[in-house]
Design a protein that fits this description.
It contains four helices and three strands, in the order ααβββαα. It has 104 residues and is α+β, with helices and mostly antiparallel strands. The protein has a domain at 49-104. It has a three-stranded antiparallel sheet with strand order 1-2-3. The protein binds zinc ion (ZN). The site of zinc ion has 8 residues, from loops.
C-alpha cells in the first residue's frame, strides 16, 4: 500500500472541502439578503435551464438515476443526492454507459 498516495488523497479531499465550505458560507450570507419573492422569480426563470449556458435541460432516467443534460452545450447535471444514489447502488461503468446514450 502506498501511504504517501493515501495521505495526498486525504489532503486533496480536505482542502477541497475547506474551499467549498468557505465559498458556500460567503454565498449563504449573500443569499440571506434575497427576498422570498425574488427567490421565487429566480427559480421560475432558471428551473430546468443549464447553469452554464442558460438553455433548456432534458431530464432522463437511466438505470434508475435521474440525469439532466443540456440541450445546447451538452453539460450533464446531477441533482443533490443523485451521485450518492449512484455510489450506493454501485454501478461500475455507469458513466460511460450513460454518456453513450447521448452520443450520435
Ligand atoms: Zn448548457
Amino acid at each position: 500500500m502506498d501511504i504517501d498516495k493515501d495521505t495526498k488523497k486525504q489532503e486533496d479531499e480536505y482542502f477541497a472541502r475547506i474551499e467549498f465550505e468557505k465559498r458556500q458560507k460567503a454565498l449563504k450570507e449573500k443569499q440571506k439578503q434575497i427576498k422570498s419573492t425574488e427567490r421565487k422569480k429566480l427559480k421560475e426563470e432558471h428551473w430546468m435551464h443549464c447553469p452554464k449556458c442558460g438553455m433548456e435541460m432534458v431530464e432522463i432516467t437511466f438505470e434508475g438515476i435521474k440525469v439532466d443534460k443540456c440541450s445546447d452545450c451538452l453539460g450533464i447535471y446531477f441533482d443533490d443526492g443523485e451521485i450518492d444514489q449512484l455510489i450506493a447502488k454501485n454501478k461500475p461503468g455507469f458513466l460511460s454507459r450513460m454518456t453513450s446514450v447521448f452520443k450520435d
